Amino acid sequence: MERISIFDSEAVDRLRAELKFEPRRLRAARTALFKKFRGVTAALAELPDGARDVFTRRVEFHPLAVEQALDSGIDGATKLVLRTPAGLLIESVIMRTGTGRVSLCVSSQVGCAAACGFCATGQMGIARNLSAAEILDQVVLAGERMAAEGRRVRNIVFMGMGEPFHNEEAVYEAVTTLLAPEMFQHTPGRILISTVGIPDAMIRCARRFPAVNLALSLHSVRQSVREQLMPLAAKYSLDELRSAILAVNRIQQNTLMIEYLMLAGLNDSLDDARELVAWLRGLDAHVNLIPYNPIASAPHLRTTERPHRDAFAEVLRAAGFVTTIRYSLGADIAAACGQLVQQENRETVRQQTLSSVRA
Ligand code: SAH
Q: How far is CA 336 from the centre of its chain?
């Protein structure tokens, strides 16, 4: 029999009705799982005796298996390598910052179809969508590890593998479950969805989740440079993106995040900074300048040197835009922005394709 996902609240509610136990017992189990991250055994202990066995047999609690957990030796990052039921590997990154706050970077896909030249995930060459349960289990597995350390995941950012808006339905279902009072009850302002820039999807997302934060990976306001860096830019023009941000700004109270990767000689001149200012004029936007984390498949790219990066930031600040220089954690365990990749997946997909051809 197909097992019920613990994240499918309607199906789990039906199972409770079938087993005829009090709703408050299920509520207590969900609190243990999704609010306190105490694990499956503690959650099952909240259920009546007769229900415990049935839940153990019929409910899928963890669609993902932890393949590996790597702790950074230089900062507070931990990378979780997780295996999906289809045998593919994805990664989540836990970031403990100096202030004691914890952010979790989740993946929305295995690989990515956006194929950005500076991003290891984009160079993997495959793209498979994750289910809502597979997205949510990343939050639970990280949450349980943090609970064991006496910490909590405060921010959830969709900045791991994949383009969230190439998997809109599962991402929206996951966010709905994260926000649901009876499930995770996560604060919407502590969720951020980062996109390569798909205008319609940005507006749909803002309408559906007005308090959830959006980030746009902009990287250049010159159409030709942006297309050179991100193939998808050819499909969605900078004008369309700007109109989408205006629309999002009208729907949301939140300031939209602009991610700007600093690449020496490509997008980092002071003229680029001035053009960025002109493009952003009239928008409610906060700029994050991201130093480029080197990846093996793009040896020709270099990050902007620090003094020059500071001068670039100064142009933006002088024009009144809040600008932050964002450092990513976990460079020693290939957990920094853009470094998430699992080559083994290609072999798994190849074998699965071969066996389905043979079957
Ligand atoms: N597909 C989404 C989310 C995943 S990438 C998006 O494009 O926004 C999360 C962020 O990391 C993006 O801003 C992306 O441009 C950035 N990034 C990708 N490769 C990087 C690299 N090598 N160094 C630094 N940042 C990188």
A: 13
